[in-house]
Amino acid sequence: MTREKRDPRREELLREMIGMYHPQSVEDIQNMLKDMFADTMENMLKAELDTELGYKKNDQREKLTTNRRNGSYSKTVQSHLGESEIQIPRDREGSYEPKLVPNGTKDVSALEEKILSLYAKGTSDRDISDVINEIYGFELSHETISNIVDRVQPRVIEWQNRRLDKVYPFVYMDALMISLKSVSDGHTDKKAGKYAVYSMIGINCDGKKDCFGFWIGANEGTHQWLSIFDELKARGVERLGFVCIDGLSGLEEAITNTFSEAIVCRCMVHLVRNSTKYIPTKRRKEFCADLKAIYGAISAGEAESALSQLNEKWQKQYPSAVKVWNDNFCYVQRLFEYPAEIRKMIYTTNTIESFNSALRKVTDRKGAFPNEAAILKILYLRTLDIAAKWTKPYPNWSVVRGKLDILFGDGWDR
């Protein structure tokens, strides 16, 4: 993975800190960071008091207030780095109440979480600084915000490699395009440009969604897909039920080779898109109505009849459009092998397309990302934000679950 170029000023600061602390272990580095955190907090608190009093320390000009600084007192606070002792400045009249560390508050990690939450929504560094300034009364530099976001990286790695459930009755896979300045697939670095970021969402046996992770710059080939599905197995997945995809090259073969019991389904909406690109705009509405008669049929026989009518009406003028449905009709027929409640869940990948749309709202604002780590951080943070709402099971899940029990038999979920 190509490393992001560091700010020379940050490099110089790091050299100074290493020269001062001479860290020899991870614990030494942790202690160094805790000291830096404490110093930063104290400087922010001093800036707060400057604002409260209306003048800076050692300002010799005439003051508009009789209130003055009155030393400081010690307070132990808790952050993601552990406990740190900081000095809280005081004023003579006792009217100053710290906003950064309110009286009675010892846990200040909420500030970091607020910054990460704003970042996850695609908020720019400047806007984050403005929001923090409005809430807490002080500004944050671009470097400070970057440092806070960078500390998420270990959590990203842990999340991307976490254990998954043994069984997922439904899985959806799709991709979104991201602009990256550099991409590494573990073997070679690739040129800057747009790359696919593949994501997977599973619906577990309780009917709740779970994002498995993200894979960047994957080649659309069986070998690459096998690697991804082998990774899922290593993370504890033993069985996949229905896997809904967009017909990416080599994907179906990789799924069935790794999870032999999986039933691969094609997204009907993608087939519609793939075929309508061959149809003139003025005739697409008419063409789509004929397509709906195929995938919206109530039986396989009715769908087959609708396909025959499609061929008869459109084949001569738009053979490429009709070919899409002739080549993929086996997936339409597969839909009718299952009850309507299950059919409703497998005829489209809308579950993951809506998820990717929510991701895209954030990634599009950021422009080109410097490297893989940067995009994984924003996708991880945005996913946490979205997944916070995934508390309820899929609508009508008890009925769907009953159909799955009949279809797969007793013990399918164990």
UniProtKB/TrEMBL annotation:
<dbReference type="GO" id="GO:0006313">
    <property type="term" value="P:DNA transposition"/>
</dbReference>
<keyword id="KW-0233">DNA recombination</keyword>
<keyword id="KW-0815">Transposition</keyword>
<dbReference type="InterPro" id="IPR001207">
    <property type="entry name" value="Transposase_mutator"/>
</dbReference>
<protein>
    <submittedName>
        <fullName>IS256 family transposase ISBsu2</fullName>
    </submittedName>
</protein>
<dbReference type="GO" id="GO:0004803">
    <property type="term" value="F:transposase activity"/>
</dbReference>
<dbReference type="Pfam" id="PF00872">
    <property type="entry name" value="Transposase_mut"/>
</dbReference>
<dbReference type="GO" id="GO:0003677">
    <property type="term" value="F:DNA binding"/>
</dbReference>
<keyword id="KW-0238">DNA-binding</keyword>
